[in-house]
Amino acid sequence: MDGVTVIDHPLVRHKxxxxxDRRTSTKTFRQAMRETATLLCYExxxxxxxxxxEIETPMAAMRGExxxxxxxxxxxxxxxxxxxxxxxxxxVPSARVAHIxxxxxxxxxxxxxxxxxxxxxxxxxxxxxxxPMLATGHxxxxxxxxxxxxxxxxxxxxxxxxxxxxxxxxRAHHPDVPVxxxxxxxxxxxxxxxxxGLGDAGDRIYGTR
Length: 209
Prior knowledge:
Layout: E1 4-6, H1 10-20, H2 26-44, E2 50-56, E3 61-67, E4 73-78, H3 82-91, E5 96-97, E6 99-104, E7 111-117, E8 127-130, E9 133-134, H4 138-149, E10 155-162, H5 164-173, E11 179-184, E12 187-188, E13 194-195, H6 201-206
Helix pairs in contact: 1-2, 2-3
């Protein structure tokens, strides 16, 4: 699908298998998600602009490269998206963080907002939205809608798993926002969960079920 990048890396596939396995402990699941997020961050930031800077090594003066412009914003969708945040910050520790609190209504599967906090100048920064699962797509659409309301116009979406339906819904609403994912699974069940998936990411991160 146009605008969708599947990160087909052996380490990503390995860690994703660990997270899918129902026998994986909370500790191992959480660590694997953090490590996978770091690998995904490497790919989603591959084309960031740099600028020349003059530095001195212990041996000589030289011209190096540093990131140009204002720092990134990572925007995890609460609560499961926080499980990806630390892995992203391991790669870009100076990034700003926005928090978007959304939950999925179990009857309608529509997203309901309960919290939102983002940097005031989010419109001037590249925003990378984080959520482990892109299932129905409604939560991702609502999160990007909210950021665009504040003026954000350079956005990217990163997830561990996506469904074809979720991708179609998200891309239909936000064709200007590219998606990076570790895998695209087959379908959704009657409750809107990805199959074969990995279960409820939030519950598995925090050991709440």
